[in-house]
Design goal:
alpha/beta; two-stranded antiparallel ribbon; 14 helices; binds nicotinamide-adenine-dinucleotide
């Protein structure tokens, strides 16, 4: 065995119902006196509740999907004019992404309080959108210093969104098994993440108001993101990035639809990863396990339903072939990728 693995410097606080307490402890440790709280309008009440005891200098709710450059500029100006010395982000990947954009230019520390399973809080990856073009990059300054996980904050996440977001997290696990920097450590995180998501998500669907399934899902989402941050973007993420950018498809739902098709594409070429994933998903094969899980979750099925035009398939396949990671276990040939996207577009059963 031979590998090099970076461990990211970050604290994880996991305690359901304790976000206010956890935040107070973290802000005290940072010695911050002028906190900028970033939370979108939908998370405003929840954010006020858990930050009531903090030294808040300003509350900022101007959040938008995929962090448009002008939204980032406005947030940076607010941070500067209020002399913020720390950022607290409360929300999904879009909100965490905005805090990262501010940290990227200011170096301010972030304490992230995630309310979906997107996982941006555990990565040093930032994203900014200018016009229709999304640029991403990696910078240690945008990695939140601390993540405050409180599963009680996810109780309000609608079931449909919980399922899509949870499958987005599962995609981080699956893609990590063959991504460019995959190694035994991030594979261990990925497999345990898949096990926890497989245990938690059906409980979220069956009992959305119960904490137990939400805790498993959130724990799995962290492991998934930590694995992904370490292993990098594999074929699945490249495909979703192309499709999302080209046709403005919703992030989590696109991942949820595409995942079984990429698994079916790569699985025969990675027998050991397939075997471990099958165990995590409690099925004879990983493909069968994912199919059964998706059935139980009533997962979104087709790119057509998400609004992708059929005549975009060939153009998307060309872009995927150009962006595909060189080390993908199966050669990424144009015809095979076209067939993959076609079957995801139709919502065909990849079993
Ligand atoms: P999102 O942040 O846009 O949230 C989706 C919706 O869910 C919003 O309407 C939000 O108001 C609502 N919501 C969030 N939490 C809620 C709660 N607890 N209760 C009720 N409603 C709630 O979507 P997302 O899927 O969390 O994040 C997607 C974004 O994150 C994309 O832009 C993606 O590129 C980015 N992302 C980045 C990384 C990274 O490493 N940089 C990783 C994953 C995702």
């Amino acid at each position: 065995m031979r590998f090099v693995h970076d461990i990211l410097p970050q604290r994880v606080r996991f305690a359901s119902g304790a976000a206010a307490e956890s935040l107070a402890a973290e802000i005290a440790l940072l010695g911050s006196e002028r906190v900028m709280v970033i939370a979108g309008p939908a998370e405003k009440d929840l954010a006020e509740r858990i930050t009531a005891g903090l030294p808040v200098a300003v509350r900022h709710d101007d959040v938008a999907m995929h962090v448009p450059v002008e939204v980032a500029e406005r947030a940076r100006a607010v941070a500067a004019s209020h002399e913020a010395d720390a950022l607290v982000s409360i929300g999904g990947g879009s909100t965490t992404g905005l805090a990262k954009a501010v940290a990227l230019s200011t170096g301010l520390p972030i304490v992230a309080v995630p309310t979906t399973y997107a996982g941006s809080e555990a990565t040093p990856v930032w994203g900014l959108t200018e016009g229709a073009v999304k640029t991403t990059g990696t910078d240690p300054r945008v990695l939140p210093r601390t993540i405050v996980y409180d599963a009680a904050l996810t109780l309000s996440l609608p079931v449909e969104l919980s399922v899509a977001s949870g499958l987005n997290a599962l995609a981080h696990c699956v893609d990590s098994l063959w991504a460019p920097r995959t190694d035994p450590l991030n594979q261990a995180l990925a497999v345990e993440g898949a096990r926890a998501l497989h245990a938690g998500l059906p409980q979220v669907v069956a009992q959305p108001d119960a904490l137990e399934g939400r805790e498993q899902a959130l724990y799995g989402a962290y492991l998934a993101a930590a694995a992904f941050a370490s292993a990098g973007s594999g074929l699945h993420h490249k495909i979703c990035h192309v499709l999302g950018g080209m046709f403005s498809l919703p992030h989590a739902q696109t991942h949820a639809v595409v995942l079984p098709h990429v698994l079916a594409f790569n699985a025969p070429f990675v027998p050991e990863a397939e075997r471990r994933l099958a165990v995590a998903l409690d099925a004879p094969t990983a493909r069968e396990g994912l199919a059964r899980l998706r059935d139980r979750l009533h997962a979104p099925r087709s790119l057509r339903d998400l609004g992708m035009p059929r005549d975009g398939i060939v153009k998307a396949a060309e872009a995927v072939v150009a962006a595909a990671p060189a080390g993908n276990p199966r050669p990424v040939a144009p015809q095979a990728v076209t067939a993959l996207i076609e079957s995801a577009w139709e919502g065909a059963d990849p079993r």
